[in-house]
Specification:
It is a peripheral membrane protein. InterPro entries: AAA+_ATPase, ABC_transporter-like_ATP-bd, ABC_transporter-like_CS, ABC_transporter_ATP-binding, P-loop_NTPase. Pfam families: ABC_tran. The protein is α/β, with parallel strands linked by helices and 333 residues long. The chain is 34% helix and 25% strand. The protein folds into two domains: 228 residues, Rossmann fold (3-Layer(aba) Sandwich), CATH 3.40.50; 64 residues, Lrp/AsnC effector binding domain/regulation of amino acid metabolism (RAM) domain (Alpha-Beta Plaits, 2-Layer Sandwich), CATH 3.30.70.920. The strands form three sheets. Strands 5-6-7-3-8-9 form a six-stranded mixed sheet, with helices on both faces. Strands 11-12-10-13 form a four-stranded antiparallel sheet, with helices on one face. A three-stranded antiparallel sheet has the order 2-1-4, covered by helices on one side. Helix 6 runs parallel beside helix 7 and helix 9 packs across helix 12. It is globular, with a radius of gyration of 23 Å.
Length: 333
């Protein structure tokens, strides 16, 4: 093997495109789960879920804490054995051929696990050596990744001197050192401010444009809408819904939502008076939500009935409305 060639193991030829849905027919399936199950004793964390991810797609797992998202990611990454079902990554079983699969995966964990005693550049170099990548390959690759992560001016800084956003970008850059075909991102922007989140979104968009398959979990509904071509909503280890963000909104919500506040002591009573004005009316402790096609018309009808909300807002329906409808508003334990 030449010194300039990465020493990662080769994959078998990519599978032929499937002849199902139009999107899947155009690209090979790189992740296939069928009735996937994971149990810990008497607790079932993942309860028979099935999904497919075509190459180059940005695929999301959305769900409350304890829904089984991270457990599913660990099984895809080959670091957690499944209890039942079938799982294929690029045509391979990650339990039987784990080293080959992991050589072509990039993993961004929920918590940064960088070596803070090392300099930024050295984190990338040493991580690349774990894959057996030659120095002749790594030297230009590291510089390329530093530029991609907008960290070239921090190359010789210690990691513990970086901001949270910089550390997250470095973690993503590190996950790309082996040029993975699939990038697994577990809550990639948790704890970051809006500016840092948008910078990360831009980096992930660029990876997708380069053909990298993205699989991510997130609690940020706007992030899922921005980044995911398609997603599954998971709750208690089961798939509640699947589709693109726009499809899920059309299927489970309305075009617009009217938010009205009448005061905590009046919201429930007023909700009963206006229950006929929308497709669905929901009374919360702090506000009343009316789901309707034309929010402005609903607001006019509310005022015409002599009701004067303290505040009112008409907004478009969002993925958060879908998420809360499917998984509930109660806090998960």
């Amino acid at each position: 093997m030449s010194e300039t060639t990465p020493s990662v193991r080769s994959l078998p030829p990519e599978p032929a495109p499937r002849r199902g849905a139009a999107a899947a027919a155009e690209r090979p399936v790189v992740i296939r789960a069928e009735n996937l199950v994971k149990r810990y004793g008497d607790f079932t964390a993942v309860d028979g879920i099935s999904f497919e991810v075509p190459a180059g797609e940005s695929f999301g797992l959305l769900g409350p804490n304890g829904a089984g998202k991270s457990t599913t990611m660990r099984m895809i990454g080959g670091v957690s054995r499944r209890t039942g079902g079938r799982l294929e990554i690029m045509g391979l079983d990650p339990e039987e051929q784990g080293p080959v699969v992991r050589a072509h995966l990039g993993v961004v964990p929920q918590q940064d696990n960088l070596d803070e005693e090392l300099r930024v550049r050295d984190n990338l170099l040493i991580y690349g050596r774990y894959f057996g990548l030659p120095r002749a390959y790594l030297k230009p690759k590291v510089e390329q990744l530093l530029d991609f992560a907008q960290l070239s001016d921090k190359a010789n800084s210690r990691v513990d001197d970086l901001s949270g956003g910089m550390k997250r970008r470095l973690t993503i850059a590190r996950s790309l050192v082996n040029e993975p075909k699939i990038l697994l991102l577990d809550e990639p922007t948790t704890g970051l401010d809006p500016q840092a989140r948008h910078v990360l979104w831009d980096r992930l968009f660029r990876l997708k444009e380069q053909g990298v398959t993205l699989v991510l979990t997130t609690h940020h509904m706007d992030e899922a809408e921005q980044l995911c071509d398609r997603l599954i909503v998971v709750d208690e280890g089961r798939i509640m819904a699947e589709g693109s963000p726009a499809e899920l909104i059309r299927r489970y919500s309305t075009r617009e939502v009217v938010e009205l506040r009448f005061g905590a002591d009046r919201n429930a009573a007023v909700a009963q008076q206006i229950g006929d004005l929308g497709d669905r009316v929901e009374a919360l402790p702090d506000r009343v939500l009316i789901y309707a096609r034309d929010g402005e018309a609903v607001l006019e009808a509310v005022v015409a009935r002599g009701l004067s909300p303290v505040t009112s807002l008409v907004r478009r329906s969002s993925l958060e409305d879908v998420f809360l409808k499917l998984t509930g508003r109660s806090l998960a334990d």
